[in-house]
Amino acid sequence: QTAHQVEIHEEAVTTADGTGIEIAANVGQPAELEDAKAQGADGIGLYRTEFLFLDREQAPDETEQYEAYREALETFPDGRVVVRTLDIGGDKPIPYLDLPEEENPFLGERGIRRSLGPDADLFETQLRALFRAAADGDGCLSIMFPVVATPKELVAALETVERIANTLEEEGIDYAIPELGVMIETPGAVFAAPELAEQVEFLSIGTNDLTQYVMAAARENERVADLRDPRRPAVLRAISRTIKAAHENDAWVGMCGEMAGNPELTELLVGLGLDELSMSAVTVPDVKATVQSIDTETAAENVTRALEASTRDHVIDRIQRNNSNQ
Length: 326
Ligand code: PEP
Ligand code: MG
Fold this sequence. Notes:
Belongs to the PEP-utilizing enzyme family. By secondary structure, the protein is an alpha/beta fold. It is 43% helix and 13% strand. It has 13 helices and 9 strands. An 8-stranded parallel barrel has the order 2-3-4-5-6-7-8-9, surrounded by 5 helices. The longest helix is centred in the middle third of the chain and has 21 residues, at 151-171. The radius of gyration is 19 Å and the shape is globular. It binds phosphoenolpyruvate and magnesium ion.
């Protein structure tokens, strides 16, 4: 129940001065696809695929995955669907995988680290299903790799991509290599963003993890909740650096952490230069309405001041002043 009813924009929106900003939804269940559509999302900016692997006895096979990815593409035949490869470990255990007991799972074997190691077989099956889904029918399929920390991990993931494509080719199975991207959610990835961006078509900033790792403040720990705020100057500067690196290397750049769904931060995010924002479906109408009121030049000028702020209070003060001037 929202306090005010915001109109649903089914069409893509632009800022007041005509810059297109893609507004997509984050989903983690097939049932959420229709809701994303109903709220006017242009596509899916983050499809968390863990649901396929949870609450079951064994991993889903290629056909089951293929069908799940096709369903997403069919829901958005004119939009982009960004599927994240399996991100387990950390806060996302899977009983049948026999994950190691780690003292610090968030700093342990999670995301791409498992896909390039103990879960290589799952990774290959998932890529096969994705490449087959990308070949059929309408829609633009993209895939991105989670928790990347080094360019070498990306090189290894891209080698797997090549190998899977060659195998499908040899087997005479229809496939297409989707648009490829990397999630920026570790400080290592921020500092390596130029080298990462030059190898892929896009970057997507995961501010939930990026904030936790930049501030060294765990996601579920209430005692450090105050530190874990993406409006902190260190986090904003990490985001800004990532966006510059993407654009200098001809990659587009989006954001799919919770931060992207806060309409009070939309002007800041557009001013920073993001091309796409992906969020919970419920916030799509509000963010689309906000984008339409933004002047990109003013937003960029305001960002310069926000990036110079040395404390979170100054950042918040600047954001609030800018929002009330709209
Ligand atoms: C993130 O880390 O910001 C993100 C979008 O991924 P998840 O919340 O699934 O870790
Ligand atoms: Mg994450």
